[in-house]
Amino acid sequence: MRRIHCVHALLSATLLLTVSCSSKDPSDLSGAASDELMRGKRKAVVQTDARIRYVPMPEPAAPLDVLLTVEGETWAQPILRDIGGDMRRFIEKMSRGKVNLNVATGEFQSGGPVTPTNKILRFIPGAGSHVPIIGNSATARHELGHEFSFNHSHTRLWDTQTTIKQESNRDPFDPMNNSPLKPSFNAPHLHYVGWFGSTEEAYAEPGREYILSVLNDDRSDSESLKSIYYEVPGTQVRRLWFSYVTLRDRENGWQAPDGMPETAVVVHEASGARVQAGQTYMEGLVGLEPKTNVRSGLILHLSEATPDTVKVRITMDPRWRLELDNEPEEPNE
Fold it and tell me: Is residue 202 within 8 Å of residue 54, measured between CB atoms?
């Protein structure tokens, strides 16, 4: 059984921490903001195109048992139990039941200074998300993501195929960044850890039409298609995901494209090898106006957009040609 240790420590003059802290209200520690995790089931949406090919996902015979230990002082036990409960619901929902998160709480036991090697998560009220520090249920999502091998998520906008025009360390659709209170991990993270259901991720193929369901809403559904995946031919590392998302809160300044019902198709890309993600990047939003995706040449044609679903037809821009700049080419067979 895999063990994750979550420890509470009080700030004191003798505890030196090299962490980046945000100004959280210490009273907001119960994780009440994540009550949305399990608000009912959504009816599965059936695809109308029988030719769609789904990305294979592992189907374990039994859930992976993971023990989350949350320790702290006596006064903090109710808070720690709430955080532990939130993490159990969040991870079990994200993993589509493939992970069984067992939560244990108890008195503070572990001690010693925070070091790069002691693998202890310390619970410090008001702390920002920085290994090994958590401050509440929101930052705990981020740190637990690291425990499940997720790396950080960012935003990266392209001017050309090989020239970046804008970057930031915030992905508005994933908790693995500086805004950790997000209802879902992004599509690259769910892909690499194998948490998508068997019909939640499909290969992008020109000429196909897909019905995408919202990835980052509050309801539980592990059958409807959530993301379309594309590996750009001729390169080993350029892999993209197109997922339907809601933007009810105008995520980090982003707003829905014209004519969309507070929704959009979000583009993600991941660095690293095919078998394990490195950094992940949000690379823009797609609305009703068809535009060529500069990194892949794909054109997404959206129609019948509702708050829950959207139809997506994919074509290829015949004028697009692959350009490489320090990217490994696909080896010749």
Answer: yes
Residue 57 DSSP label: -
User: How, if at all, do strands 153-158 and 280-286 pair?
Assistant: parallel
Structure tokens at 231: 């590996």
Residues for the chain: how many in total? 333
Helix (H) or strand (E) holding 211: strand 209-213
Write out the H or E segment, with its range, that includes residue 228: strand 227-231
Structure tokens at 210: 């897909």
- The answer to whether 29 and 123 have CB atoms below 8 angstroms apart is no
Residue 190 sits at φ, ψ, to 5 deg, of -65, -35
8 A C-beta contact, residue 278 and residue 285: no
Tokens found for residue 280: 């992940």
Nearest 5°: CA angle at 272, between 270 and 277? 60
Q: Tell me which residue of 223, 126, 127, 141 sits closest to 174, measured CA to CA.
A: 141
For the stretch 78-121, pLDDT in tens is 888 888 889 889 989 999 999 988 877 766 665 544 333 333 45
DSSP designation for 214: B
Closest CA to 87 of 146, 37, 154, 51: 37
Mean pLDDT of 207-224: 90
Beta bridge mates, 157: 166
Tokens of 6: 């979550």
- Both tokens of residue 208? 């196909």
pLDDT band at 27, cuts 50/70/90? very low
DSSP class per residue in 124-170: -TT--SBTTEE-SHHHHHHHHHHHTT---EEEEEESSSS-EEEEES-
More confident residue, 170 or 249: 170
Q: What amino acid occupies position 198?
A: S
Distance CA 259, CA 140 (A): 36
**Is the torsion defined by CA of 56, 57, 62, 64 positive or negative?**
positive
Report the predicted TM-score, pTM, of the whole model to 2 decimal places: 0.82
